[in-house]
């Protein structure tokens, strides 16, 4: 296996970073050195912001027609598909996620790029001609400017594609800081974007740590908008940074979603949904359904079904097509997950499956783990675990289910399983989250916006609303013909 080494991508080409340090990325599954990225500096950020600013003020990208930008973005989507195997391998090596999910990520990333391309042609405004004699108002939608994008490690290519192509479609220019754990696919996609025809300076990538590169970038005076995905703690720091220059931001943060199973659900589908809710992407997923609520009348049988299926989860080599749960991102995160499991046992939840670190390997693997009889005061009910650990709580009535689901500091997503349309609609209306899905889970399409409430952040990703984050309105009011004087002579 060869180690990939990346320079910074600034002004349309790979250049040496201004610092001398590098970040080594070891595969979380094998411990092998798989990539090296520059340990970026504030000077690297300054250069990238300057390149993006010049590209925005003077370069061709914002001046191209929507059709021209769409053609380039569609070429990028094509290149992502033709380079799929390489991108998949990078995601598996750097993240530790199972290969079948990495394939879905790259296909999803190409799909998002194609959808963003279509929006480049839809960027329209409004005209008013009914606002008074001789008056016409043109409300146009313009690119917001130079945008700073900060992405996390759990879906490097996919979350990048929830932001970058939407920003580019609007005519913005971009400085992206990927996670220091998983920067490879960002550099690969930036190179593919250049090959597709994104001009120099329109899409820059600076690797480095959050405390240096991320902090400097999100507080930079040369930035017009910040879009961040990551933890609630860092997100609130980022909002503090942007407020110094009164810069608009969108922050998509953690979650602690409820997956509510009513007695009248299709219980086979709901059982599969329970597994998807917690084991998809190793449980390292902001929209995981990590709190499973089961109606008491079916609880014993349904939980037995979920546990029996979870027992078959194959934890191990992420390159194996049969693997369900791969390696967690690093040893610190594994320690955090085991700490949560320990707290579940100590606080009196009933461990019904797993509970241990997988032994006999250098990788950071954790068994598929399930707790029953979890109560709202317990740490595992409240905190985002971000691992393959399911908490089950039983409920009796619709009111109980809604109260338990909303008893969280987060509000990103929630899931409902019921064949009764009244139940689905009334519960969905009462759930405090930006996203609700019924009889499906962690599903979606590029057209559908994602947003959080409460501790899960604000602003939109994907969909028309996600695109509009990268735009602003300009109102032009024109008087034709005589204007009645306000101060007649
Ligand atoms: O996140 P951070 P971490 C949750 C999840 C996870 C926890 C911690 O529970 O266990 O957060 O993960 C950059 N200014 N989520 O520590 O720190 C950082 O370099 C600007 C949920 O990895 O939020 C990385 O690029 N940027 C989440 C990005 O922020 C800074 C996905 C995310 O890292 C910065 C990831 C700073 N001061 C974790 N400090 C989701 N919503 O899916 C760090 N960064």
UniProtKB/TrEMBL annotation:
<dbReference type="GO" id="GO:0016620">
    <property type="term" value="F:oxidoreductase activity, acting on the aldehyde or oxo group of donors, NAD or NADP as acceptor"/>
</dbReference>
<dbReference type="InterPro" id="IPR016163">
    <property type="entry name" value="Ald_DH_C"/>
</dbReference>
<dbReference type="Pfam" id="PF00171">
    <property type="entry name" value="Aldedh"/>
</dbReference>
<dbReference type="InterPro" id="IPR029510">
    <property type="entry name" value="Ald_DH_CS_GLU"/>
</dbReference>
<protein>
    <submittedName>
        <fullName>Aldehyde dehydrogenase</fullName>
    </submittedName>
</protein>
<keyword id="KW-0558">Oxidation</keyword>
<dbReference type="InterPro" id="IPR015590">
    <property type="entry name" value="Aldehyde_DH_dom"/>
</dbReference>
<dbReference type="InterPro" id="IPR016162">
    <property type="entry name" value="Ald_DH_N"/>
</dbReference>
<dbReference type="InterPro" id="IPR016161">
    <property type="entry name" value="Ald_DH/histidinol_DH"/>
</dbReference>
<feature type="domain" description="Aldehyde dehydrogenase">
    <location>
        <begin position="15"/>
        <end position="475"/>
    </location>
</feature>
<feature type="active site">
    <location>
        <position position="252"/>
    </location>
</feature>
<keyword id="KW-0560">Oxidoreductase</keyword>
<comment type="similarity">
    <text>Belongs to the aldehyde dehydrogenase family.</text>
</comment>
